[in-house]
Amino acid sequence: MKYCSTRNSKLDKSFDQIIIEGLSSDGGLFMPKKWPLINTNEIFNNKNITYPELASIILKEFVGDTISKNDLEKITQETYQVFTNDKVAPLIKISDNKFILELFHGPTFAFKDYPLQLLGNLFQYYLKNKNKNITIIGATSGDTGSAAIDACKDKDNINIFILHPKDKTSEIQRKQMTTIRTNNVFNIAIDGTFDDCQNIVKSLLVSKDLKKITELSAVNSINWARIASQSVYFFWSYIQSAQYDKKVNFIVPTGNFGNVYAAHISGLMGLPINKLYVATNSNDIMHRTISNGDMSLKDVKSTISPSMDIQISSNFERQLFESLDYDSDKLTTLMENFRKNRSYNLKGKILDNLKLFYKSKGINDKLTSQTIKKFYDDFKYISDPHTATSLNILDELNNDDINIALACAHPAKFPDSIKDSINILPDQPKKLKDLLALEEKYRDLNNDVNVVKNYIIDNIKKL
Fold it and tell me: Residue 144 in contact with residue 117, Cβ under 8 Å?
């Protein structure tokens, strides 16, 4: 398996190269040069298959010969041992053909644990083999940071710097990051939005000043290893439904477009997907883009689903690249126009291609809160606000397909929103309760790439 960049389709790199680099030096995102086909009959007929076994089967197609089959199996077994549910990602039945896929049974109670625990172990494997050290730089709107820190803390050959937008995550989300006291973890609060954090990270990952003193990598979903690993739980949910004569629809809460793109590539690999429903909050650029091609930036609004408070969905570049027949020149021109004008109108073939795979809906805070209440009243199911955006669409669907909504975070991470919606506080895992009394450690920095770069350089030199 070889990889190109969305900005350079002639690039030819292996998995061990692109996982460490994270972002291509041309500013593009790595993409496989061909889509592997999974032998679905083999995995569907294996009634005893486990999540780690499924992960190793799917990921082998992406890692190629950079990891042996035995080593990959060891890595996946080790990765998912830290998840608390026996099924790792259990499928909860709501009605005959409506389900919720729970993705919050990892160490930080959010779906980001599924790719990031694996990514941390893959980093360790490759770095040990190559005798290298790296500096990881990431941005978070809430959950990526804590999941990345948990996966990379105390690893001798990794230093990790995580940027989060100041006062724009929940208290629990912030404390999951800032109470980790290890020498290789650095938290930075940026006076800005998640998009500001993400833009700084993208600039830093191609910074010549940083590259002179350290090798850089990314943990955000711009890292292809994350997208590949997230594809596993879409296959896994279909296996658990055990209705192999039907097609499946997934409803995915969407911010950076990584999770729903992982669902899309599952379809390209052979999973019988009918439609992917993109659920946004009031930051609805992806809903507007899919509905009528309106890819225009607006100010980021603060909502009760803060992990989705995003306007620039980085992984959408991958879908655009695909929709443009993998033409990097056309993609580069499109993205330059979008960056310059803060707007781009998709139309014709490219918009038709999007509509072939996706539908969408924007769900505001009022509707999100009403959906939390409805699912509690009807099913005694308590969902977090991000999950509620997908449940709103799930509730509306009326078809004969399998319909699966993704539950992306534990409700206890957003107790105020749950209390406001159903007048009940969700049960809080002990690990989250204990956070509230712990001392925090992070650095406030201005929304300035040079300020952040100098902070990182100073701290690397001290290590």
Answer: no
The token duo for 369 is: 């809160």
Both tokens of residue 67?
Answer: 């990891």
Q: Which residue has the tokens 């690893």?
A: 155
For every residue of 38-56, DSSP letters joined together read --HHHHHS-TT--HHHHHH
**8-state DSSP, 426:** P
**Phi and psi torsions of 171, nearest 5°:** -60, -40
Q: Has 130 been annotated as catalytic?
A: no
Strand, coil or helix: 452? helix
Q: What is the pLDDT of residue 142?
A: 76
Domain 86-109+224-422: which CATH number of 3.30.420.10, 3.20.20.80, 3.40.50.1100, 3.40.630.30: 3.40.50.1100
The crossing angle, in degrees rounded to 10, of helices 51-63 and 224-241 is: 140
Smallest CA-to-CA distance from 461 within 209, 244, 274 is with 209
DSSP conformation class of 306: G
Q: Averaged in consecutive runs of 10 residues, what is the pLDDT profile of the chain (463 residues)?
A: 97 96 94 97 95 98 97 98 97 96 96 95 92 92 89 91 94 93 95 94 94 90 95 98 96 95 98 98 97 95 93 95 97 96 96 97 98 98 98 97 97 95 94 90 97 95 72
- Which tens digit of pLDDT belongs to each residue from 127-154? 998 888 999 999 998 789 999 999 999 9
* Domain boundaries along the sequence of the chain: 86-109+224-422
**Paired sense of beta strands 158-165 and 185-190, if any:** parallel
Of the candidates 47, 60, 74, 112, the residue annotated as catalytic is 112
Identify the burial level of 206 via C-beta atoms within 10 angstroms of its C-beta, where 0-12 means exposed, 13-18 middle and 19 or more buried.
middle
Predicted confidence at residue 170, as pLDDT, reads: 87
